[in-house]
Amino acid sequence: MNDIGAIILAAGMSKRMGQPKQFLNLHGKPLFRHAVETAVHSGLRPVGRSGRRTDRVT
């Protein structure tokens, strides 16, 4: 049983990028989703998310 979890922080205005970084597309998926999937595939449970509009990432 793995007792280690992950909290992925996704916040900030990202003015230079023109849109929130967590929603930037990388290989067809938002960056935030890549971070969540990496945590899950590493065996980290549960994965928590924190940030502005992270509910948009499925």
TrEMBL record:
Organism, as annotated: Parageobacillus caldoxylosilyticus NBRC 107762
GO molecular-function terms, A-Z: nucleotidyltransferase activity
SUPFAM superfamilies noted in UniProt: Nucleotide-diphospho-sugar transferases
Name by which UniProt lists this protein: MobA-like NTP transferase domain-containing protein
Pfam annotation, one family: NTP_transf_3
Domain MobA-like NTP transferase: 6-53
Xref: Gene3D superfamilies: Spore Coat Polysaccharide Biosynthesis Protein SpsA, Chain A
Leader sequence segment: none
